Amino acid sequence: MSALLVDNIGELVTNGVGEGPLGIRRKAAVLVEEGRVAWVGPAAYAPAADRRIDAGGAAVLPGFVDSHAHLVFAGDRAAEFAARMAGEPYTGGGIRTTVGATRAATDDELRAIVRRLRGEALRQGTTTIEIKSGYGLTVADEARSLRIAAEFTEDTTFLGAHVVPAEYADRPDDYVGLVCGPMLAAAAPHAKWIDVFCERGAFDVDHARAILACGQAAGLGVRLHANQLGPGPGVQLGVELDAASVDHCTHLSDADIDALAGTAHSDGSGTRTVATLLPGAEFSTRSPYPDARRLLDAGVTVALATDCNPGSSYTSSMPFCIALAVREMRMTPAEALWAATAGGAQALRRDDVGVLTPGARADLVVLAAPSYLHLAYRPGVPLIHQVIRNGVPQ
Ligand code: NIG
Ligand code: FE
């Protein structure tokens, strides 16, 4: 059995046992066997191994868990971004532009785009990523989007209810029928999750409830886009349906926060429904950021994700999102890193990633920095020195 020792770690973030909420260990080493963390402890007591990576006293973290990304699309909406920066508002209407380009693309073109973005994310430290459909919006195009997504991740999400496509504009009820019927049947074999964009201009709460319930009945887990563009019932619908995560959460009432806090686990390990914040979207739409502090102070589990998509947030960079969360959303650097690793894992209801404890998947990021603090302290700087995924140096 070939063992790999990651040695001479100055600051190891485990999100497990150790100093503070990040479970930090100093002068540490990690032993990896068969793609898993086999041992974590002081470098001075490190067991022998066939191979050794010298971290040179730098910081080592769990790989980032990006629990919200829309990577299966074609086309470019840079002009829409430029128009927003010149004062146009974001409405979500541009989704239909991407739907047109995606339908016109071949499977290989879509596959190449996902591969490029997945590679980009990996080089920035993302070792687990969720990928949604949602730019096909026909039975065949949603099924193929998910088939392609499944070539790159286990966490695939059916988002047939992204917007009502143009050809159904005057009969949204018929489109909901299509999503719940033939589209779900074609999508479900390739999907783990179901998602709905529950927002004014997309799907109202009754349609969202109906679609999510059909997905649940087909064995999919629930997550949803909620309260992004304005206040609304999406977050409370997520709680009602035991969603793993409600995403965006930009406009929250006290009742929304109370509902999320009410899903707390009895052992104090956070909330069953996670609030996933996507600051890349507020950056790219020049919108007010969500107030993470309010959620954290109420005991709600917070995750950070990129929302990587061609319209509202065309970034694959978790370090960028961490920096935004610290600067703009009143998160401490420790809270932001936890949210981008263990928080993302909880948003995907996974306990094998987001932590570096024995038994976890050996997904490690070696920083070109002495501390995780540098992720927010040195924004925009390529600090990801080395990525190990599933025990394999990338
Ligand atoms: O998460 N909100 C809905 N979906 C994406 C935006 C998609 C787009 O504009 O293409 C989001 O922000
Ligand atoms: Fe999204």
Beta-strand content estimate: 15-25%
The helix/strand series, from N terminus to C terminus, equals: EEEEEEHHHEEHEHEHEHEHEHHEHHEHEE
The overall pLDDT average reads 97
Helix content: 25-40%
Tell me, briefly, the overall form. Answer: globular
- The oligomeric status of these chains comes to single chain
Name the bound molecules. N-(iminomethyl)-L-glutamic acid, fe (iii) ion
Count the E strands: 17
Unreliable residue runs: none
Q: How many helices does DSSP assign? A: 13
Quick recap:
The protein is built from 13 helices and 17 strands. With 394 residues, the protein is α/β, with parallel strands linked by helices. The model has no long low-confidence stretch (mean pLDDT 97).
Give an overview of the whole structure.
With 394 residues, the protein is α/β, with parallel strands linked by helices. The chain is built from 13 helices and 17 strands. Strands 1, 2, 3, 4, 5, 15, 16 and 17 form an eight-stranded mixed beta sheet that branches. The protein has a seven-stranded parallel beta sheet with strand order 8-9-10-11-12-13-14. Strand 8, helix 4 and strand 9 form a beta-alpha-beta unit. Helix 4 runs parallel beside helix 5 and helix 11 crosses helix 12. The two termini are 20 Å apart. The model has no long low-confidence stretch (mean pLDDT 97). The site of fe (iii) ion has 5 residues, from loops.
Topology:
Elements lengths: L2 E11 L10 E10 L2 E7 L8 E4 L4 E4 L1 E3 L11 H8 L9 H10 L2 H17 L2 E4 L1 E2 L6 H12 L5 E6 L10 H16 L5 E6 L6 H13 L3 E6 L7 H7 L4 E4 L5 H8 L12 E4 L1 H7 L6 H6 L4 E3 L13 H11 L4 H15 L16 E4 L6 H4 L6 E6 L2 E2 L1
Parallel strand pairs: 1-4, 1-5, 6-7, 8-9, 9-10, 10-11, 11-12, 12-13, 13-14
Antiparallel strand pairs: 1-2, 2-3, 5-15, 15-16, 16-17
Bound molecules: N-(iminomethyl)-L-glutamic acid and fe (iii) ion.
